[in-house]
## 1
Amino acid sequence: MLNNTVFSSRNAVARNSQLGALLFVMSSAAAAQQQDNASAAKRSDVIEEVIVSARRVDESLQKAPVSITAFSESDLQQIGASEPKDIAQLTPNLTIRNAPGTNDDYAFSLRGVAAAEPSLAIDPAVGLYIDGIYIARNAGMAFDVVNMKRIEVLRGPQGTLFGRNTIGGAVNIITTRPTGEFGYTVELGAGNNDNHRAKVAVDLPAWGDWSASLAFFDKRQGGWVDSVYGGELGGQMGTAWRGALHWEASETLSADYTYTLTDRAGNGQISQITHVRPIYADPNGQFYGGPFYEQAAAAASAKRLDSLPIENSRSRENTSRIDAHTLTLDWELNNNLQLRSISSYRDWDDSGIPEFSSFRVESTGDVIDVRGLTTGDPVRVVPAGEMVPLFRSPRFRDQQQATQEFQFIGTAFDERLQYTTGVYFFHEKGFEDSTEQTLVLPTSVVASLAADSFGLPPIITAINSLPASQTAASAALLVVPFEYEIENEAYALYGDYTWHFTSDLAVSIGARYSVDERAVNLQNTFGEDAFVIRVADEWSNFSPGITLTYQWSEEVNSYAKIATGYRSGGFNIRASTDSAFRTPFDPETLTSYEVGIKSELLDRRLRLNVAVFRFVYQDRQIAEFEAGSGGASSQIVNAGESQTTGLEIDSVYIPAPGWRLLANYGFLDVDYKEFVTGPLDPVTGYPSAPGNQDISGEADTRLFAPRHTGSLAVEYQFTPWSFGQLNLRTDVSYTGEVAFHPQLSLYDTSEEHTIVNARATLADIRAGGGSLEFSLWGRNLTGKEYRDFGIDFGILGFTIDNFAPLRSYGADLVYRFGG
């Protein structure tokens, strides 16, 4: 359990002194080229080759006909990455954001293809893989990865090469294997806001055919936002263990087993109320909610606040735990064929109490508690001084997944044919319990809700029977139970076959057949009306693709491809009516057309990779709040068709020995051809017209799709000194405006922002038979305030946003021995 008392306040003196030291070190970069030219020759003046496994075999980044951004182990160390989100700002057309209320859920967007819904019944749009294992849900996708060797971001559909269909692309994480040689690494780090981290990784000496490694990671961060009720918010802690075992059973058979255990706890993502609708907070408003909503409106701010009306107590902790097992077998059947088996089991559970603003009732009668009506208890008038949350959702989630994949990787016809074909099996069970979800609405709104909503008729009847004087200027405290179970199975057969007509010209043909079976039990827990609704359905899809590659020279390679992808249909587990829940939403499909050039020029001092693409997105699944529903309910709709045109540039340039410049750029132009849904008024949150209409001309094209993204990193490696080598890095990243809802984007859009990070490292310090390195680092050095994620709750009357952390800085110490 977290002890909030250890989260101390910011230390302004330490901040200024550490930043001053960092800036002093960075200012010395201007003198770098005055080093001795003879010594400079020791540093690399060509770009190192990058090996990727995007096509399930190790190959050069420049040979793979895929738009890829790859981060090596040294890149990840320079960035200070410990989880996938850390590389997002340096990858074109990729955004990764934490969903509100928790530190453990991701909202991925790649080329504008996104899925932010954290429920266990919705598939991600971007696949996250760790050593070939697919992580099935956005929920629980954020966790610390120990011993990362490489991260590859593959853009566009990847279903012909990966176990699960990945309609938007894949983030592929590769971890290190045991080396069989004794060695260890110890890392210590500290920063502002009581930021502490430690890592120990040990490689054991081989014994016979066996080798093993063990790693432990621990990080802690104090709170960075004050609670108006005392204490600090935003503190978190986490530990991660990873054990790896490698067995060379024979010259042709090997096995790798890994076990990971991660535990995280914290206050969750700190969500700030940024807007309250005037129709609820203004006494002249249509649905005036009384003094309680006036308090909420007074506390709301479109700018980042340093103190929030959120209770700070141990009971508000969010916890997450992951147990994961992976077994990979590689068997060389002959010189031309390899069989690979990948088996996994993952168990994730979390609990938490997301809360969006609490207020003390000013006068008795401002809030009427009708929660007891679900069990037959009378209406309660909340006395003055009692704390009431605007929205509170205690929950417990549990998900287990098991996968089995068989891959056949080989060559034929004197290696003119290269192929990968696979069979994939997936099984999953999940459960979410949020039976005590509570919210506050104006009593006049509750009285007008649809009477067919789950469990609401007795509440509506009771409120309508109250005297008008008691409900005219008051708010109602409701409970909206939410509980469901899922069970999913998926099967797939996929393959990718490359035929080399010549040494320079090749064509790849891929295909995938997928079957998804889903079953959901929705539990309505309203008093005597409690019941279970069970629904089930099945979807299948065939997704082909073709790629033509041509090697113009040793330095220039090109490709043109057509790829297709699909994401399964499903059920609206957040629906508020029986009919809405029983009606499934359809699968979505995407067809991508892409041309790319990969080049290494100027005697391998310039790497320039460019991809231009256009894709057609059909039956896109969009999460929409249901007007007139009870609670924070929403439904997935198949909105229609959109087309996106885009550009991606990845480049590395070495102008002189010791220097390295990395620049990338992403561009997206989204055009909705059809977007059929219920139109909403962004000011009131209510329907602006009855029924469904085509709103393609009004839908926000910035929906998880910033028009421009880009970054520039400058690195300089000094000539080695007798006591070590100084390395400097500064990176600047830009992200354009992002919307989080296709219609309700007036109050929670993430504005464009530029982030500056820097790192200075003194490495290769010989000590005790090993090497020592010391780093000073700073992130968001300009202290840019920007929204990381937001939710406009529509008719619930308010908007909340997560603001990204401000300036952070610190120091790291690393000691490496052997290995």
## 2
Amino acid sequence: MLRGTSFASLCVLIGTFGLGACGDDGAADPGAGDMAAPDMALADAHMDAAAAPGCGDALPETVVVLPEPTPVPLAGAWWRGWVAGGTDDPAFGDFVSGTLSVDGPGTDARGIDWARAEVGETFGALSSPGTTLYFLRDLPVANGERLFARAGRGVTLASPGATQQGDVYDDGHHRVALPGATPEGTAESGTLPLAVRINPPRGRPAVQLDLWSTTAELVVDTISPHRPDLRVGERIDAWVGSRVTNLRGEALSPVLARVVESDLFEASETAHPSIGAGATAQLAFALEAKRAITAEDLAGETPTLPVTLEVTSPCLSAAYRTTVDLTVRARDEVFSVTRRSPVDGSVQYHAVRPPAEETPGTDYGLLLTLHGAAVRAPGQARAFGPSPDAYIVAPTNRHRFGFDWEAWGRIDALEALDHAMDTLPIDARRVYLSGHSMGGHGTWNIGVLFPERFALVGPSAGWRSFYSYPRDPVPGEPFLSASRGSDTERYAGNLTRRAVYILHGDADDNVPVTEARAMRELLAPAVPTLGYHEEPGAGHWWDRDPDRPGADCVDWAPMWTMMSERRVADVELDFDFRTPSPSVSATHAYVRVRSAATPLEDVVIESRADGAAVTLTTTNVRSLVLDGDALTRAGVATLAVDGEAVSVRSGAIPVGPQEGKRDDQYGPLAQAFEQPFCFVHGDADRVAAGYAAYWSGYWATLGNGYACTVPESLESTLDASVGRIWLRPSPREGLPFRWTEAGVDTPEGGPAAASVAFVWPRGEALDVYVITPADAGDALFVFPPFSYRPRLPDYMAWSDEGVFAAGFFDGEWERAETLSFGAL
């Protein structure tokens, strides 16, 4: 075991925006003058963040149109605390537990230097990169009002009811609740103890923070909902996804997302398990059109049609309505399509560029194209001219920055592809993959991990891996094994039987052309159909012929020509396939890998056909399932797997033990968040409820996602298929770790008061347990549920000294030997 890995090292290791204890080092400006201000503290809360659950069954009869909120001025006297750059933050635990207070000016027992500061209309001029600043103030709240905020990157907020993350992308659309001003159900005016933590990124000293008050119990985002376009000639059945912020200090459970009946839409209702106390989550609203869109609906300069959304719950005093507009598109325009993601039930969208002419009864090719950072899916689709014989489909990565097309971004791309294959007339043999910049990296990553899906892989200005660009440090084991899927070059051999076209500008000052040259050198000996073009003098984005529709750096004619010559076989029998884990990519041709013998090595499959006989050779495989229908369709009569004869028959053919780990219930920890999940916290555990609200809002922003959060007393109301993310639950039997309120029983030599997070199967679902000592609320925030570069293994244990153990469970879900990890 390796002990003493610091929180700062863990921040580098995980590389996650939202890890509250992480901060940049740098010089600090203590600033401050001694200006009059009242004493303030967060220690006294009027309400519990995890109020007693259960609101009855009756829905409110009152319907309210959401009112316009009132800005709350920031200007005034605040307490300001200064934490020197390069030091651990001694106030973070008190901050997230709602007990941060100040006795007066000067340095307190924690080493925080407090002064009184006069704040203007913004916090921007008061922040210093590399330094953590705290601002505390009691904000007056009038009778019947609730507060919410828009916070930017580098800002975290704490009130008695929630700890809230700012918008890591500074989009300006993010809203977070500030519950805790007055007890629910009373008519009292009061004050809201508010703490603001500012830790701005380097080069961005200014921060965004705006406050509003409202008489409503929730906020519905109408600025950036995921919404479909209405296409002329079609009757739409689709979804609208909109972020909803719960301003109450108790969970809304259940929550109903309704579409109000209109001339165009039927009434509909979609139930969601909950929105936690003070949490933000994206809700899905079902659109069921009564009629097809007509040419008359295109009238107007910007043709739109309204849809009225309603949110209600037995926990609310009223049902709240708002309206969003849906854009009407002509048949030849790029249009947006929405779908509901199996990951979390959220609404995601992709854009489609239709072919030049759509002829009924004709099957078309499909190009899946991945956008670069900050580009939106419709913009990516519009960078292409219409193809004569292919649909162009541009997914979102769940956000225009998203996940670098790995983890949830990779899943989003494949979901968009599957939806397009199901709803458009596509020839499955003619599917291709391309992308630019970050999307070029996604093209490499998805292409090497899922080669059976694509006849051609065509990255433009793409970088290879996190380790070549932006040159992240290579993690040690077991984090390296949990993250092997990021190493594109390791799996480049999967492209041997595919066409590859590499496109790059030789003067690219964003992604250097050396990335393209390195991949050409790697692939040239093994890939017979390899196209390569460097555009002389071109930068990151270029268009050689601006008079021709489409930008040449993505809509490149020679790449289209190579696509037209390539097809994917119906059933591939001759192939070599390497995968980092069944939980990342399990299937190729007729083979589905269920589990590996060890998670520390790749799985390798070699298939060779000789007439009607097929020989399958495996390395590091514990169990498989073979597609007997595909083998029969391909005319296979005899099959040998690792030298043993296997009978070819219709249906699934299991090979090896089928109990224990399997590809959809496998680990690592992040896999539990790639399936429907819900945070579960103790009814009276305010810190755990605040943690749930924090990450629910983070997921709503980073992944445009839905994260259910409920107190333990409502856990039994969840569907059995929903994974539970247990936050500091009571001790229980049958699990690989034992714990008490003081912490986890650790391996011999482990520290006292330790914490652990681990993934564990339950029925058909995957659960996660996050166990920390009762008196160490900040320890919860060391576990980032949505990390993806690098990923966490099946379990990780830490103390206030840092991470001391991590590892994987074996194929039978037995405890594996604890694995130490190398230098970070």
